[in-house]
Amino acid sequence: MTRKRRRLVTIGVCGAVLAVALGLVLWAMRGTIVFFRSPSEVAQAAVAPGVRFRLGGLVQEGSVSRGPNETVSFTITDTAAAVPVRYRGLLPDLFREGQGVVTEGVLEPGGVFRADTVLAKHDETYMPREVADALKAQGHWQEGGRKGGQEAGKTGEAAPRTASGTGPATR
């Protein structure tokens, strides 16, 4: 066997070993890979019932209702579409209406998303790119803590002074 032929055989064997290793890794991970979907994608019937995925968006105002045995129902929206969610368990401390969340679970045949994990986001900085893009397109995005050209919590006016004029007023 010539030197060139040995080199080609070695490269071929290494390629085959790498392909088998990659195949085994993908086969082992097939149950743990979870894709992210927005409420708009779910509303367009892009997800079949029973498929596990992550659903992210904002908790719709006025949609949270608590039931018995730590059961909570709420609606996740990206302002274009909304998906009802049912979750049983304790919610994170940061969970509230109007706040960004990511849930993981399955879509039931009736169109209700049954979540087994709820992650509440601190702010839009940590929101998945797809949800952030949808919110930007509809004017609901707070880029860098700003909304409508003003910093959150600031109006650009000087803080009111106390009667002595030496410091900020307390309320």
Low-confidence stretches: 145-171
Shape: elongated
The CATH topology of the domain at 35-141 comes to: OB fold (Dihydrolipoamide Acetyltransferase, E2P)
Within CATH, the superfamily of the domain at 35-141 carries the name: Nucleic acid-binding proteins
The order of strands across the largest sheet is 2-4-5-7-6
CATH first level of the domain at 35-141: Mainly Beta
Please report the number of helical segments.
3
Number of DSSP strand runs: 9
Global mean pLDDT:
77
What's this model, at a glance?
Residues 29-171 are extracellular. The protein has 171 residues and is an alpha+beta fold.
Features:
171 residues; alpha+beta; OB fold (Dihydrolipoamide Acetyltransferase, E2P); five-stranded mixed barrel; two-stranded antiparallel sheet; 3 helices; elongated
Descriptive overview:
The strands form two sheets. The chain has a five-stranded mixed barrel. Residues 145-171 have low confidence and may be disordered. Helix content is 24%, strand content 27%. The protein has helices at 3-29, 39-43, 129-137, and strands at residues 35-37, 52-59, 65-66, 71-77, 82-88, 100-107, 113-120, 146-147, 150-151. The protein contains three helices and nine strands, in the order αβαββββββαββ. It has 171 residues and is of the alpha+beta class. It has a domain at 35-141: Nucleic acid-binding proteins (OB fold (Dihydrolipoamide Acetyltransferase, E2P)), CATH 2.40.50.
